[in-house]
């Protein structure tokens, strides 16, 4: 329960650092964001889950492609994203990978998600693909929940 409370208070990004030794996942703050107001997580949307999966496309690693993808979706009563739409494109390679990040596993939704009309709402998320040693890709100005996928070259 303590972990859920922390997730509700902090705006989180998921940082996945990839290296030859595997993946490490750690939540980080995305800036000076005020805690959400209103009914729990409903103001910001369902919570993204951390993951240890390597979402950085192999071709993008090889070509040194970085970028950010803005998405919007609804989340059903079981926490699965529906009707994912790309709002800000980084090209087909990263757009497809970003959709996979968002659709790969269910979101954390409150117990009363259906009763409060959550599945009918649309929420914005972001996915940022960074390569260590290259200029940082800027965060989203609206401070939406963002998964940051970082590749560390060896």
Structure, described:
There is one protein chain. With 154 residues, this protein is α/β, with parallel strands linked by helices. Helix content is 17%, strand content 32%. The chain is built from 3 helices and 6 strands, in the order αββαββαββ. A hairpin with a 5-residue loop joins strand 3 and strand 4. It starts with a helix and ends with a strand.
Strand content: 25-35%
- Estimated helix fraction: 10-25%
What multimeric state do the chains show?
single chain
Decide which structural class fits the backbone: alpha/beta
Assign the CATH topology: TolA/TonB C-terminal domain
* Radius of gyration over all CA atoms, rounded: 15 Å
CATH class, named: Alpha Beta
The CATH level-2 architecture is identified as 2-Layer Sandwich
Number of separate domains: 1
Measured between the Cα atoms of the first and last residue, the distance is 38 Å
Spatially, the strands of the biggest sheet line up as 2-1-6-5-3-4
Largest sheet entry: 6 strands, mixed
Task: Spell out the CATH superfamily.
Answer: TonB
Number of strands: 6
Round the mean pLDDT to the nearest integer and report it: 76
The stretches of 5 or more residues where confidence is low (pLDDT under 50) are 1-43
Number of helices: 3
Order of helices and strands: HEEHEEHEE
Q: Describe the global form.
A: elongated
């Amino acid at each position: 329960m303590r972990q859920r409370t922390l997730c509700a208070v902090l705006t989180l990004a998921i940082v996945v650092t990839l290296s030859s030794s595997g993946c490490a996942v750690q939540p980080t703050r995305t800036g000076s964001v005020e805690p959400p107001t209103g009914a729990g997580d409903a103001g910001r949307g369902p919570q993204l889950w951390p993951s240890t999966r390597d979402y950085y496309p192999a071709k993008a690693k090889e070509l040194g492609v970085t970028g950010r993808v803005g998405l919007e979706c609804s989340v059903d009563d079981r926490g699965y994203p529906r009707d994912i739409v790309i709002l800000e494109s980084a090209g087909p390679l990263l757009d497809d990978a970003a959709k996979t990040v968002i659709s790969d596993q269910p979101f954390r939704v409150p117990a009363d998600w259906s009763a409060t009309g959550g599945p009918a709402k649309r929420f914005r998320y972001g996915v940022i693909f960074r390569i260590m040693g290259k200029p940082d890709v800027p965060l989203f100005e609206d401070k939406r929940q963002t998964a940051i996928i970082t590749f560390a070259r060896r």
